Fold each of these.
Amino acid sequence: MRGDRLSSVSPAAALPGPVPDRAAFCAAVSAPPGSKLIFAGGYLDPTHGVKDAVIAFDMLRYESPALQLVLTGAGPGRTAAEDLGRALAFDDCRIRFSGGWPDLAAATQLAEIVWVTCSRGGEHLALRAMAAGRPVVAFHTPELAEIIDDGETGYLVPQGDRAAIAMKSHMLLAYPQTAARMGEAGRKRAAERFGVARMAEQHMRVYREVVG
């Protein structure tokens, strides 16, 4: 198809609602109160890299006993993810599941870091994290490279490199001021380039072009 026949509409992320009570959220996911949370998942299947997230967390969990991995969403891979987590850390499994938590966009503000371990896609997960002001550590995909400014709003690592996910997360946990800076840069980028109003305007532009 010729380039003049193509139009691009950016994905969008709405601003999250009020931050939920941390103790209430931790209780809902069976995590100790005051836990440091890392969010990953989105949908629990191989495409969303649930196994990669669990293995990366096993490398990182020695960083602090307060760290918990929260796999968000639902899907057929929940049992496999839980079994893998227990196999890797049978005496200290810290894999949690958000289940039916009603507002994950708001809850994302409780996370220290958000991982996007998708083999493709993952834009909505990255934008949800950025809108919440959280730094993102993600596998490098063409889609995410359009959204995440590597080294500014988060980190992009080679596809499938679980050790790199853990290493970059270690850096963010060790330097909270860097994590805060990246989170604020992500919030600003999401508002300026991926706001709902901008997406609606782009759709309207396409409709006007189509109708002449």
Note: The CA atoms of residues 43 and 73 lie 5 Å apart.
Amino acid sequence: MKKIVVMPLLRMPSGHHQVAEALINMFEKQNKNVEIKKMDIMSYTSDVLEKIVTSMYLKWIRYTPGTYEQVYKRFINSHSDQSGLLKLYKKLFIKKMVLLLQEENPDLIICTHGFPSFLLNQLKLKSKLDIPVINVYTDFFVNDMWGKNGIDVHLVPNQEIRWELIHEFGVPERNIHVTGIPVHEEFLFTTKDQIRSSRKRILISGGNSGLGKISSLLEEFKKSKRFDYLVLCGNNQKLFNQISSWKLSHIKPIQYLTSRSEMNLLYEQVDAIITKPGGVTISEVIQKKLPIFIHSALPGQEEVNLTFLTNRGLVFEIDHEQPIEIQLLKKIANQKQLSICHKQMESYHKEFEVNEQGILVLIESLLDGKTYKHNSSLISHEYRIKQKGLSI
């Protein structure tokens, strides 16, 4: 039986895990003869270390976002794969990655985070690894942590990344496929057959970890007469209790949702969403063709995502100096604006060259060591696992 290892990072809920689970679900429904295992190199190294890193990361971006932004720009998205931070990561974790591969002996590795991709890329470039590796990107850009030249296949979210990988990093065009950011199949279902309310409903999301500046946003909506608001509080119990104490019929708090079908139904019940520019959430909402309003962006990757999304006309950025409900009305009640928004979303989807079935065919081809063809591009791989080659 063939084996695939899918590698996000850390255990906290994140877009990296959501994409990993979408791919696992996609493959398990089609191929019962393949073992798929999700693994985190940080937890494999040390459960205690993983918990410490997760706690530090969440506190860092919550309480001192400015310093996180500086570190991200200088070391992670600095247009250099030789930064001191990456060299330190390599020294600390590459031996653990080798041990993981020796123990698991996979036939294929899929990375949904740049850190494992970086480590595997180093092994590839030194001819220490002959297992095919796929990068599946979860943001609308590529930071410098992702491995590039040693990676066998890149599933990218847009044409801009394709161009960047080819012209700035020398990645062969045949190894790159524009797929968008994969979303779980649950969000492909449409159930809009319920009676629509006369009042527009707005979904407000601050992220599964309760991060995001939505408390101040809600203060403006407490006296609203125009919209009903559904607020995803994630794990932020304080926010949930605060909204519940208001006892307002037009603002409803919702705790952490684990069911994708419930989340999909929620998307189907609303007329727009106010959220942050996380790659997976935005991709889900674009799939549902909902107008997207950005209330804030976490430092680092979300800020870069926001630049891409606004440049492409896929989202509306909220101006906090102006009444927010007026901004919502001007967009939601304006059919011309909505039409432009939908056309931009359709244009974005037309960039995709490989659909879900194509991704499955590609993965199966790599597992079988066969040739995969798409749009006149050719990927030919004859792989063999170096049983004794996983060393440093």
Note: The longest helix spans residues 84-104.
Amino acid sequence: MQVKTGAALLDIKALGDKGSFEGYASTFGGDPDSYGDIIAAGAYTETLAAPKARGTMPKMFWQHDPREPIGKWLEASEDDKGLLVSGQLNMGVQRGREAYELLKAGDIDGLSIGYRIKGYEVDEDNDIWTLTKLDLMEVSVVSIGANKNATIASVKSERRLHEITEKLRAGDRLSEREFEDLLKGAFSLSNSQAERAARVHLKGQGEPDDAATGLAFLQALAG
């Protein structure tokens, strides 16, 4: 499972005088977000049940920094729109007071989630990921959305690598594209290096047993 942050949502619903506030940390369905992801309704059902049973809640951080807790979440629930959270900023710490003043002035108005992906469906033709089950770790107050370059590329690469590894464990043969993705993800090969290796091991350019040898080697790695 991987951890990544969602795009900031400009939807703070209410801000109380003493630092209480409410907003949507995530919304369901619609068009893919800036990462090419769609969160399905019900994705948080399981993860929200566990904290209620334990009497705990996801953490509230400033800008996804675990070194800077700024309060606590009091409630989190799903409705038709998305994940609605209500929390209390800690006005006894400097960063909590700063977050309150920035929210009150409208200088920041974003919430962003940190989560582990536990279930998803992939539309490979359009490179759209529908996240069906998430393990919610924290909800942060943020000034801008999460970095959508290396972090998200890395997460999707890891998800892809996990899929391919599971296919190998099942004893299934990889397609040329899957073989290339595996080599790039597991061994940090360049595109050209991965393509060349795929030609040798899957298309039999070389010794006749190259394809079988390459597959057996990768199955051994996955085992």
Note: Helices lie at 45-54, 94-105, 150-169, 176-187, 191-202, 210-222.
Amino acid sequence: MKYKKYIIIAAVLVCPIVYVWSCHNSGRGNIDNGISFKAKLSSYQLFKGEMLALKPADGVELFQLSSTLFTDYAEKQRLIKLPKGKQMVLNDDGLPIFPEGTIIAKTFYYSKVEGKGRQLIETRLLILHQSKWNVATFRWNATQTDADLINDGANIPINFTGLDGEWRKISYHIPAKQECGSCHRQNNEIIPIGPKARNLNITVERGGKNINQLIYLMKKGVIKQSRINSITGLPDYHDDTLPLVQRARAYMDINCAHCHQAGGFAGNTTLNLDFGTDLEHTGIKFNKSNIIIRTNQMGEFHMPKLGTTVIDKEGVELMKKYISELK
């Protein structure tokens, strides 16, 4: 019996170490771009008028997600630009099939920066070329008139007031090109994360009217006409009227599952956090303490691995509440 006790103690001590090591040693090398990105964001003609206004150009469509990745309380604008005459095709609940030449853009900004009002920080591009996604990051200049291509990342001090009214002082991290692969890698390819059909299947306001976003994009010709009755929806984890389990699983899906699923950067760990994975096969129960520890403290082993320099307090509380209620 005493040996059994020692085995249990050893397992308790070693398992978290193995888990942490596997999360940080599961990469399969760099994935290089197959195109050369232009030096200026303006070259892609995503906006019309002053770029600071972020007004989409003709032929560029705004899209929104039901649940979004936490990135140091930054706000985000998401755009998609398809080649003229081309359409996306829905592929069940997952990522649509995008036509060659698709551009997906995400701009990160803060609306209330000390002494400046709104400040644009970075824009990330994904471009599909020869059936391969290519990724680049552009840093907005001091005059907010354009953004410059950067490869090595940057740290930008920001003092801002968040949407919750709290004042924060952070060092915002723009990822280096090679860092992008940590989250956007699926097996040995780069893929988009957010615009899955189930995450686009929400009601949005367009032209002063509320409409389902998938239907709106079909009417605009962005998505090929198809039946959407079979498309599920990813819950909005901010909506506290929804069941706790749905909110928590949605949070883990968009913030963690891009790595913690088969083929992801941390696909060889004991966690699979995709929203569609049955609880008994997620590994959540086995890793309860690790989930809390790694989201509730900064440092080398903090999760999410990239994109955050401060704790998502609301997200941590959601995880704690959900895990405390697991039987």
Note: Residues 1-28 have pLDDT under 50 and may be disordered.
